[in-house]
């Protein structure tokens, strides 16, 4: 049962990441990986919010499943390496700095928001 | 491309993502990280996922023109890359674990976790890419020589 909750959340989170990436590429072009950046920040915020929820089932469905699959470290690392290899070293550094800072800021904001309730 | 044409891709991304997330969930059950400790399980999951994705991307997107073999199935990359590796690795848990360590009054461990994951993940994706390129170059030479 627990495992099914993770599967259900991930089966929504991973396609959401894919579709967000596609939409971001269509909107902003391939120069900077806005799609991955966006899902990582949003997913971090939502996971922060979930610290205010006690239900273990909700954590499995929305935390481990949805947020875990919505966000990605592998694509973030690969895209950073590609930027560097393609000569866009400034963008590579920017992707690292912005993703780490915004991810941490977003999760903190989520935790603090959850604390207000 | 309309959403209808995207349906098979969306489907395999969902399936791969569910598999990857299940593997990550299983790793967390097998090796739970005590609160306040260095999150080794997420660290290892993220590093392995990065190495796998680096290797896969070389195999799928960098094909030498002299190869006569059929190109990889178009759903392979969305299933294994976007789906499995994307669902296996996580940025949100990484951010939350960093925040938890920082706010628990252990900023050194928090920053160490954040930095060590970044450096090791980038090294892993590079190792996956470079290692697969090197292996394939050797295999490719054998192929050309034998033709």
From TrEMBL, chain A:
Entry keyword Transmembrane: yes
Reaction(s) catalysed (UniProt annotation): fluoride(in) = fluoride(out)
Taxonomic superkingdom: Bacteria
Binding site for Na(+): 68, 71
Family note: Belongs to the fluoride channel Fluc/FEX (TC 1.A.43) family.
Function: Fluoride-specific ion channel. Important for reducing fluoride concentration in the cell, thus reducing its toxicity.
UniProt-recorded name of the protein: Fluoride-specific ion channel FluC
UniProt organism field: Streptomyces flavochromogenes
From TrEMBL, chain B:
UniProt: Na(+) binding residues: 86, 89
Subcellular location as annotated: Cell membrane
Keyword Transport: yes
Residue intervals passing through the bilayer: 7-25, 37-59, 79-96, 111-131
Description of activity control: Na(+) is not transported, but it plays an essential structural role and its presence is essential for fluoride channel function.
Record's keyword terms, sorted: Cell membrane, Ion channel, Ion transport, Membrane, Metal-binding, Sodium, Transmembrane, Transmembrane helix, Transport
Membrane topology: Multi-pass membrane protein
Main location: membrane
InterPro entries, per the entry: FluC
Pfam families attached to this UniProt entry: CRCB
Superkingdom in the source lineage: Bacteria
Catalytic activity: fluoride(in) = fluoride(out)
Protein purpose: Fluoride-specific ion channel. Important for reducing fluoride concentration in the cell, thus reducing its toxicity.
NCBIfam families xref list: crcB (TIGR00494)
Protein family: Belongs to the fluoride channel Fluc/FEX (TC 1.A.43) family.
Listed name of the protein: Fluoride-specific ion channel FluC
Originating organism: Streptomyces flavochromogenes
Name of encoding gene: crcB
